[in-house]
Design goal:
CATH class: Alpha Beta
Shape: globular
CATH topology: Alpha-Beta Plaits
Number of domains: 1
Distance between the termini: 29 Å
Order of helices and strands: EHHEEHEH
Number of strands: 4
Strand order of the largest sheet: 2-3-1-4
Structural class: alpha+beta
């Protein structure tokens, strides 16, 4: 599965004092330490793997943000396709091939 998710603290001093970036960085640190293929951009972090391992990473990333905020926003989009690997790069490569035409 390929998951795009965004997790952010809400409703605390962290939100107004610039701590959002620090909390999000802790979530991204968990994703990167997982060893799963991943990518972070301005809006989402993408992670690829099997259901249980990906959802565990999303859960732990969310818990890291919840540790510093009374409320957490989680947005998640998933592409679930059995037997597929490498989608994190191959989907983009397909679009790039069409753009090169």
């Amino acid at each position: 599965m390929l998951v795009a998710f965004s997790v952010s603290p809400l409703g605390g001093a962290e939100e107004s004092s610039g701590g959002v970036g620090a909390a999000v960085a802790e979530a991204v640190r968990i994703v990167r330490a997982s060893g799963l293929p991943n990518e972070t951009n301005a809006m989402f972090t993408l992670v690829e793997g099997e259901w249980d391992e990906v959802m565990d990473v999303v859960r732990r990333a969310t818990e890291a943000v919840a540790a510093v905020a009374p409320r957490v926003s989680l947005v998640l989009k998933a592409d679930i396709r059995a037997g597929t690997t490498g989608a994190l790069r191959s989907k983009v490569a397909t679009v790039e091939r069409h753009l090169a035409d």
